Sequence to fold (314 residues):
Amino acid sequence: MLRSATALAVAVVFWLAGSRLAAQRKTPVAHEHPDLQGMWLNDTATPLERPRAFGDKATLTDAEAREYEQRYQLDRTAAISPVDPVFELQAAGDLDTYTPGRLLRGNRTSLITDPPDGHVPALTPSAQQRLTEQTERFKTHYAENPENFPNTERCIIMANASAPPMLPVFYNNNVQIVETRDYVVILSEMIHDARIIPLDGRPHLPAGIGQWAGNSIGHWERDALVIDTTNFTDKTTVRGSGSRLHIVERLSLNGPGSLRYQFTVDDPESFVRPWSGESEMSRTEDRIFEYACHEGNSSLPSVMRGMRPQPPSR
Fold:
């Protein structure tokens, strides 16, 4: 009898947990705009910039795309696994049927759509000097103190994953969107960051207040959610951007299982011109898992203990 009661109690706990999870995934939308809610996979083999080998080709043939996708999967698997990458892919379903990491529809060769060459515009002289100084500081002071580590190593923020623009990274590319009449929340699996975006028409924060992921405000333009983000700090950079960075994102449904994502990056102090890109997220039934970046918080002290006896870099 006791065993049956215990089994029943466990079943009830799992049922309640499942119900709460389902409730978290879906909130009733109390407005007339499209329902963008749910889990989305922000992953593609199409790179941000067009590989030089493709020249001015904005798209590939199906045969060229298949060859590139297979090479992309091998390179990505080799980067994160000590096991033979071909074996890894074959174990997952062999090279011919392995589906993650496809190029965007049309076999596009870059996320960047403007400029037409598919590359990030040149940096301004001041931005080049800023990056040079940052690189020198990193080389000569790496691991002297916790503050000298890159933001990603400190697990504070992953630029372009948990901060706009939302670009695919090497893993943890799931995104959850929760939508109400007054707010939209975008939760990134990478470093478990949540952007809370008000839709009530409020202005941006005063110019002197900066935030790691910027200050995002949103509004609807017909069927597209438009997110305007300013007030960045100089600690979060997009390909060399600075604190004057301004990003505009547009999210719209591109079918029941597809979310169109467009973005424009504008920072006149850092780039010689604005640049734009477009990607696509696919609906998924996967869940977002906890991002335990430094398990036990022992990584940074260990690295500092190992680096401090080393002679300074020059």
Notes: The chain has five helices and ten strands.
